[in-house]
Specification:
Elements (H helix, E strand, L loop, with lengths): L1 E2 L9 E5 L2 E10 L2 E9 L4 E2 L3 E4 L9 E11 L2 E10 L2 E10 L7 E2 L12 E9 L2 E8 L1 H4 L3 E6 L12 E5 L17 E8 L2 E10 L2 E9 L7 E2 L10 E8 L2 E8 L8 E6 L4
Antiparallel strand pairs: 1-5, 2-3, 3-4, 4-6, 7-8, 8-9, 9-10, 11-12, 12-13, 13-14, 15-16, 16-17, 17-18, 19-20, 20-21
Length: 271
Amino acid sequence: MILLEDLNVRDPFVYYENGYYYLYSSREVDGAPAFVCHKSKDLKAFGQPAILFKPDKNFWATKEFWAPEMHAYNGKYYLFGTLKSDDRARGTQIFVCDTPDGTFTPLTEYPVTPEGWECLDGTLVVEDGVPYMIFCREWLEIVDGEIYVMQLSPDLKRAAAEPVKLFSASSVKWTRPLGANNYVTDGPFIVKENGKYNMIWSSFSENGYAMGVCRSKSLFGPWEHEPAPLNFNDGGHGMVFRKDDKSYLVYHAPNAPAGSERMQLVPYELS
């Protein structure tokens, strides 16, 4: 078993089912990037990582496997992960499995995010049975990172509509540039509460990496941003899960140096 305080993890994602917590992350396995899952009964001690997906020589992506998150949808389990290769733009690929910690297979040959865009951190939102992906367009391509919403086909295999821009990082009061004028958007996650959509997302603030919250009555906006970030401990890429009618915020902190990142878990109620 691995104790929580000893587990190095970035961009943690937690799913709870039938008495078990599943912690999704990425790491190198035998020198290759992979998506993995640690299983736990109490979020204090975790089993060794189960390999969910490790590419073979025919898979398009070769590096920078980031931020997997798992969503139960229509009787299956879908893993959303960010990947890249030297000859193809970064994108969010969707994988499918019959169990939350089994071997996942690619749902399509390539990512569902727009081809040619540098995209990351896609997350699933289902509204009235219609699936949508919220994702980031990366600052490395466009300088000022953006967040989009895009309707997906019912089988999650393709876009069902053009992506719609929700906001750019520099438009939010608390964000600060990374370097001269690069504004980051990372890790959007949506929770619907009290008739509103609550989005947690990450960027950089005066105190380092941080999470913000914005709210809207519609997935398509307009989005009203809180004037200050949620946290000041150089942590981010958060998500929220519910258990026993309570909500918990999960994220990693600190953001640097590499190897120091640990999962943070705090009770949290969205308004």
